[in-house]
Amino acid sequence: MKTNSIILISNPCSEQFSTFEQTTAGGFSNLCEKEVIDFRHIPDKALLDYLQSKKENSCGILNHLDYILL
């Protein structure tokens, strides 16, 4: 049986991704001193695999908030 996953963003970042210094994975926020991963163009499975493999919080940009992953 296939399970759906939901990504909830309780405290979205107010910084503008377009102002970040570009990196191979997305951009770097000088304010937060963190890399922000660009998840907008990767398949749902790759996004889930990435998030499930991380032990710490991740910063990223997504196309949708409260998006149901199939």
UniProtKB/TrEMBL annotation:
This is Uncharacterized protein. It comes from Hyunsoonleella jejuensis. The lineage of its organism: Bacteria, Pseudomonadati, Bacteroidota, Flavobacteriia, Flavobacteriales.
